[in-house]
Predict the structure.
Amino acid sequence: MRQQALLCTVLIPAMTVAIATPALAAGKAAVERKAVLGVVDQTFAALAKHDATAMRALLVPGAVFAVLGPDGRIKMERDDEFLQMLASRQGDWRERIWSPKVLMGSGLAQVWAPYDFHLDGKFSHCGIDSFALVKDGSGQWRITGITYNVQIDGCPTDPKTRAKTAAKTPAKH
């Protein structure tokens, strides 16, 4: 009888917690991943609209932008410089990422993904985007820095374009 009481009062609740905790943690991680990628999506929406106000809301004050150009030069910009450039530029901007890798832990997140950039409907360049984010005191994910490289040649296409191209290309035997 004593063993049954021990089983019911201690072991079963402990086992339930042990089983449920990883599932709850996985669910929370999925929600956080979605929130982080949502900030990245909002970034591309702000870029497309040249909306410096919307972009400002996504950035931590003092955020840094680093660009590795095709010539190997590194260009650094502070958030204010970047926002001024964004508001003053014209044209239809479209940037897309695919297959993002997201690392998260203790209020920090990193998103790394291949991208392509189109200007006025024409391919311009590609590269890798890297976003560094922090979760602020209000629980919002905000960008502390964006680093990317610019490639002109040898650019991969996004998976959707690759699939369409492969479907149209006859098989060689």
Summary: Residues 3 and 53 are 65 Å apart (CA to CA). Residues 169-173 have pLDDT under 50 and may be disordered. Residues 2-49 form the longest helix (48 residues).
